[in-house]
Amino acid sequence: MNAGVLRLLWDGAYICPVRYPLEYEILSDATEREEVGAWLLHANLRLARLGEEGAFFMAPDVIGAADITRIKGELAKFRDTYGPAVLLLDFIRQSDVGARLLVPGEYIVLYELEKAVSQSSVLETQLKSLIGVISNAAHRNSNHENLRRLLEHLLRDGYVVVANKDTGAYQVTGKVDQLYAVLQFLDENKVIPDQEVDDLDEGAQQEIPIRPEPGGEDT
Fold first, then answer.
1. What pLDDT digit, counting tens, does each position of 107-121 carry?
2. Three-state DSSP class for 169?
3. Is the N end or the C end of the chain the one with fewer CB atoms within 10 Å?
4. CATH code 1.10.10 for 3-62
5. pLDDT > 50? residue 141
């Protein structure tokens, strides 16, 4: 049983082939998954997965009253917890309508974003409207700098990794599937008022392509 894998799971990581290729390969082994699952069970936890090829993560073995209360509290904070990622990812998707699905493994290149913004006053206006959302962004910065900080924001939150520092290329991680699953759950169960979602950005939540419903969490 790999200690590095256990440490990542315990820290709440989503182990996907993009961000954690070695650990993902280790967990692809059925024997390793069984051993990890047995170890987690001692803490009333289990090894879960988004679909058959999605990221591995740690989840409660049994959802109790305390877990339900905690989850409801987290979802009630949708605006703070998931709002920024929703807006930033949607902006990237709109920079290349019809081509970007923002699925795990897809590449996002800084200069391509900058080119798209320079050719669209609508995108430039949208970027400026996100100044208050993007970490360390500012109106005095160039579009290039604010776009770089947008990607660094997503990097910090675990939705992308640096694929090539020299070319400014980033790659979408498996954590984005978790975000899509949350959006799907919120949409289907109306956990928060519709107005809370609408206030993020007119239609932004609906515009992000929702991934197909996960095939279930494998233990």
1. 999 999 999 999 999
2. strand
3. N
4. yes
5. yes
In angstroms, rounded to a whole number, what is the distance separating the alpha carbons of residues 89 and 59? Answer: 25
Give the model's confidence band at 180: pLDDT under 50 very low, under 70 low, under 90 confident, else very high: confident
Structure tokens at 138: 């500012």
DSSP letter at 181 equals H
Dig out the tokens for 155 from the structure. Answer: 């990097």
Residues of the chain with CATH 1.10.10: 3-62
The DSSP code sequence of 84-114 is: HHHHHHHHHHHTTTTT----TT-EEEHHHHH
> pLDDT, tens digit, for every residue of 33-92?
999 999 999 988 899 987 888 899 998 887 777 766 766 676 666 666 677 888 888 888
Q: Beta strands 45-49 and 107-109: pairing type?
A: unpaired
Token digits of residue 40: 């987690």
Q: CA–CA separation, 136 vs 149, rounded Å?
A: 7
**How far apart, in whole angstroms, are the C-alpha atoms of residue 76 and residue 209?**
22
Structure tokens at 210: 């929702």
